[in-house]
Amino acid sequence: xxxxxxxxxxxxxxxxxxxxxxxxxxxxxxxxxxxxxxxxxxxxxxxxxxxxxxxxxxxxxxxxxxxxxxxxxxxxxxxxxxxxxxxxxxxxxxxxxxxxxxxxxxxxxxxxxxxxxxxxxxxxxxxxxxxxxxxxxxxxxxxxxxxxxxxxxxxxxxxxxxxxxxxxxxxxxxxxxxxxxxxxxxxxxxxxxxxxxxxxxxxxxxxxxxxxxxxxxxxxxxxxxxxxxxxxxxxxxxxxxxxxxxxxxxxxxxxxxxxxxxxxxxxxxxxxxxxxxxxxxxxxxxxxxxxxxxxxxxxxxxxxxxxxxxxxxxxxxxxxxxxxxxxxxxxxxxxxxxxxxxxxxxxxxxxxxxxxxxxxxxxxxxxxxxxxxxxxxxxxxxxxxxxxxxxxxxxxxxxxxxxxxxxxxxxxxxxxxxxxxxxxxxxxxxxxxxxxxxxxxxxxxxxxxxxxxxxxxxxxxxxxxxxxxxxxxxxxxxxxxxxxxxxxxxxxxxxxxxxxxxxxxxxxxxxxxxxxxxxxxxxxxxxxxxxxxxxxxxxxxxxxxxxxxxxxxxxxxxxxxxxxxxxxxxxxxxxxxxxxxxxxxxxxxxxxxxxxxxxxxxxxxxxxxxxxxxxxxxxxxxxxxxxxxxxxxxxxxxxxxxxxxxxxxxxxxxxxxxxxxxxxxxxxxxxxxxxxxxxxxxxxxxxxxxxxxxxxxxxxxxxxxxxxxxxxxxxxxxxxxxxxxxxxxxxxxxxxxxxxxxxxxxxxxxxxxxxxxxxxxxxxxxxxxxxxxxxxxxxxxxxxxxxxxxxxxxxxxxxxxxxxxxxxxxxxxxxxxxxxxxxxxxxxxxxxxxxxxxxxxxxxxxxxxxxxxxxxxxxxxxxxxxxxxxxxxxxxxxxxxxxxxxxxxxxxxxxxxxxxxxxxxxxxxxxxxxxxxxxxxxxxxxxxxxxxxxxxxxxxxxxxxxxxxxxxxxxxxxxxxxxxxxxxxxxxxxxxxxxxxxxxxxxxxxxxxxxxxxxxxxxxxxxxxxxxxxxxxxxxxxxxxxxxxxxxxxxxxxxxxxxxxxxxxxxxxxxxxxxxxxxxxxxxxxxxxxxxxxxxxxxxxxxxxxxxxxxxxxxxxxxxxxxxxxxxxxxxxxxxxxxxxxxxxxxxxxxxxxxxxxxxxxxxxxxxxxxxxxxxxxxxxxxxxxxxxxxxxxxxxxxxxxxxxxxxxxxxxxxxxxxxxxxxxxxxxxxxxxxxxxxxxxxxxxxxxxxxxxxxxxxxxxxxxxxxxxxxxxxxxxxxxxxxxxxxxxxxxxxxxxxxxxxxxxxxxxxxxxxxxxxxxxxxxxxxxxxxxxxxxxxxxxxxxxxxx
Length: 1333
Known about the structure:
Structural class: alpha+beta
Strand order of the largest sheet: 11-10-9-8-39-38
Shape: globular
C-alpha cells in the first residue's frame, strides 16, 4: 500500500523563509507544460520583461512568446509574431555514429531545446536564436512586435541532420562590438560551432576542430579565466567526458586548457552559471551534474591550478539530478542565494539554498509548501513585475511551468521591503549594444562590495535584462564601476538604493522609472464564487459557498482506517487531500476511507464544488495517539515497529541481502525482548551462544506490568537497531523522524541510552538487546562495518553499457557481467554515485545463518578464495562444447524475449486471471530435468501448468471471472513483484503480505492452526521472528549460489546471442552454433527491405526479435507505453526502468523465486493453512496509475491468489516477463525455497517450545541411515519393506538414475556416482533432502 508522507526537514529557521508564492495561474501560464528552455527580454521595448518558453516537442505543443502586460500577467502573442516553428524533421530517440557506436539519446530531452535573446545587429531590439534538433533558427526582431526568420540568409544551416543544439550563447569573443554565437551540440558526432558576426546581419562559421574534440555538449558560458576582457568559453559535457575550456587568444583563436586550469570536471555536465557567492570580488562559476556538482572559485593561494572546487564546503555538492541553476540575491542580504532544477527519469524536488553570509549554503523552505516532485529543466530569475526583487520561473519537461513571485518587496498591502535593491541596465556604444560580457562592481556605504558578470546565460537559455544587486536596509551606494568589454572602466559615485539605473557606455548614468506593474486587485481563486479572471493580486475578496464540516474521528491510532464524510447534497465534486495517511477508498466521493500512518499528526482536507463554484479549503486536524491501556491498542507495538522498519527499508538502498538481515535481526531482537519479559519460550541471541557469539544474561524481573515491560523493551531494542542500521541511508533524516514519531507516540524518551539495569529496567533491557545485536552484526561476516562490500570477488567480464548496441565486451557468456549506466537508480529510487555498480553480496554465503547448518553447506575454491554455498543446486546449463547444454541455454534465454512479446496493452489476447484459471500448480509437475523445463511453462503464450480452482477451497463458493488483457496482466505482474509495491525489496514484500494476512478478520491467530488463539503481540513477534529467519537464510543460500556460479543475466545473454547469429540454418553466413534458434514471428533474420535493415542495409543478416520495444519509446511515462514490435536483438532491453535495467548481482538462482516459495512455506506452516484467509488474497492495480516507467494498465487489474504458493508462483513468473531471469534460474530457486521454508520454520519454532499450544510433531517410520553421504556411497533408507517407490532428483529437478537393493528392512539406493550438492529423495510417504559431499 502507498502512503503520502509529510516530509519534515530540520533546517535553520530564517526570517525570509517562505518568501515565494506560486502565481502560475494568476499570470495565465497554467496551460503551458512540457518545456525546456525559458528566456526573458523586453522584446517590444515597453519597459517590462517578456518570456519565450521552448516546447520540448513541437508535435504536442508549440514554443511560446509571452508578452508581459505589466499588470501581473502574460498574453500569448506567438501566432502573430512571425515565429512560425514550421520545422520539418524527425529525430531518433537513440543516435549512433558512423561506426554504429552510441552517440547520444533524446529521451526526456525532446527536439526543441534552447532559446537565447541577443541584439546581434545592435538596433536596440533583442533578436532570438532557437536551438533545436536538425533545424535551429535565427529570428530577427523587426521592431514592431514581429520577427523574421533569417536563418539561411544569416549564414546558418537551415537543416543539419546530425545537429542537436542544446544551448546557444551570444558573446562578443573578438570584441568588435557585435555579438557572435557559440552553439553547444549534444550529438557527439556533430561538433560545437562558433559563428562570427560580420556586422552586416551575416555570420561566418569559425572552425574549432583544431581546438576541441567533439563531445556531448549541453551548454556553455563565457568566463574570464585568464583575467583579460576577451571572453573564454567553458563548455559542459555529458557522459563523464571532460568539460572543455577554450582560452581566448585575443580574438585570434583558442587553446583548450580545462585540465591546466583544474576545471575538467569529468562527470555529467549540464547547467552552468557564474557567481561571486562569497563577495571576494573574484568571479566563480558553477557546474550542475548528477549528484556531484562543482563550484569553481578563483584560487588566490599558491595552487597549481587557477580554480578550486568548493562545492562540498559550500554544501552544494549533491543536489540530486541537477539541470538549470541560478545564483541570485533573493532576500536582499547582499549574498547570492541558490536555486537548482532537478529530475530526469524520476521526478525529484528542486532545491533552494540560502547563502549564509558567503560561508556556505543552507537548504531552505522556498514557498511554505512541500517541495514539488518534478522533472524541472531551465531556471531563470527576473523581475517580472518590476518591483525590485527577483522572481523565478522554472520549466518542467512533463508538467506545468511554474512562476514564483518573490515577496521580498511587497508594497501592495504591507509596504514591506526586505533589505535594499539596485537594478542596472547597460547600453553599449563601443561594446555590443546589450553590454554582454561587462563586469559590474558595486560598493556600498557600509563597506561591503559585490561583483557580477553580465552574460544572461544559463541552462538552455540566455536573457537580456537588468543586473540586480541586493543589500542591507538603508545602505546607499558609494560607487558603481562598469568594466565594458571593448572600452574599459567607468565609475559613478554617491547613488541611492531601491532604484533602477541605466548606464550608457561613454555617456553617463541616469535614474529611470522602474515601471512597476500595476496589478489588478480581486479574487484570484478560480474555485471561488467571486473569481475575477483578470485579477493578478488577491485582495482577500474571495467568496465561497457556505461550507459544512468534515465529520469523522479526530483522535485515531496509527495504522487504523477511518471514514470521513462531507455531507452536502448540492456538491458534485469532492477534492480530498490527506497528510500522513492514504485514501484507500472513496476518493472523489463524499465519503472516504483513510488508512493512517505511524505519525503524530495528520490532516484531512477537502475543496467541495457545486454547479457554480467551490468552498474554500476545509480542514480537519487529526491527532494520532495510543490509548493508555495496552489492551486497547489496535495494533501491537511489534507491528508498529515493523511498519517503521519497512518504511526505513523503502528509504534505503535496495539491497535484498542487507534487508533480509535487517528484518531478521530487528525481528529477533523484538522476539527476544518479548520472550525475556514474559518468560516464554527461549530467546534467540540473548543469553545464548549463537554461531560462536555469546551474550550474558540471567533473568529479568521487576514489579511492572507485562505490558509496560513489553512496550519499553521491544521499542528500545527496535529503535536503537533501526537508527544504527540505517545511519548511512540516503533517507536517514526521514527514517529518524519516523522512528522518533513512534517513540513520541509511545511516550518514550529518545535520548535514553542506559543499559546497565537490563535485568530489571525494561528500557535498559531493550538498549542492551540492541547493543548485543549490533555487536553480533559486526562479527557475522556481512562486512557491515565497511558497508557490506565484497572482500575478494571480481567480475570476469568487462561491463556492458546497454545504451550501446550488442555486447562487444563480454568474454565469458556463462558468467555475470556488470552494467555500466550513465546513471544508476535503484528500485527504491536512489541515485547511486557509482555508474557501474558492483556485485551485491557475492560472498554473502559466509554470513552467519539462522536455521541453515553445516549439512547444507558446500565450500568451493576459486583463485584461492572460499565461496560458501548452502543447498548447492549444481551448475546451470552453460555455453560450452556440449550441444545439449548449449541448446538449453539458448532455449531458456530466448523464452525471455518471447515472453516480452506479451507486454503490450494492444495485445488482443484476453485471459481470465481469476483463480478459476490461474494458480494451484501441482508440485509434481515441476520438471525433472532441464530439458523438460519448457513442459512446465507455456513457452509461446506465457504462464505455467496452473490448474486453477473449481471452487474456493475455504468457502466452497465460486470465484468471479476476471477477464483482462494479457498485456496488462503481465506488465502489472512484473511491476508488482519487482521489489514490492513500495520497493521494500522481496523479503520486505513478504512482511507486507504477512501483515495483510494478520490484519484479515477471517484469520484465527493460532500457531500452526492449533491450540488457543495468540494475542496480537505474541502472533506478531513470533511470525516476524520466523519469517525474518527464513528470509535471512534464503539470502545467505541464494547469494552464496549467485556468488559461486556467477551466472549471466538476460540483458547480457540475449545481446551475446544476437552477436553470434543463428543456429537454425547452417547454409547462411550468420550461422553459429551459439546463436539464436529462429522462431517464425518471434526470432528472425533482418532481410533487405525490412524497416530495420538500415539506410545502407547495414543490419541485413542481423537477428531481430518481436518483443517489448524498450524504454526509448516511452518519452512521457504518464501517457506513453512502449508496446511490442520487431527490434534488433542487439538492442534488447528487459521490462525495467532504463536507469535500473537489471539487479547488480548474478541471476542463478532467482532470489524472488526462492524468497517467495520459502515465505509461502513459512506462512502455510505458521498459520496452519496453505490458503489466504477466506481463500483469497488480492492487490488492485488501478487503471493508468499503477505502472511506473510507462503508462498503464489500460484497465483495473486485481492480482488474486488462493494460496501462499500461488502468490509465490506468480512472483516467479513475473521475473521472466520482467526480463530479469530465464527459467533456468526459476525452478531451482523454488525447490531451495521449499526446503528452507520448511527447515528454517522447524528450526525457529523450537524456540517457542515451552509455549506451544500443541507441540506434538508427527514422526514417520522411514529415515535415512546417514546424512550427508559420500559421492561414491549409497543412500540407505531404514525401516523399509521393499515395496516403496523411490525417485531421486538433483536440486535443479533432474531425475537421477539408480538401482535398488533391499535387505532386512534396509534399502540401498545405488548410483554410479553423485556430484557434491543437494538431492531430493521422494517416496509416497515422505521427502528427504540428501546432502552429498
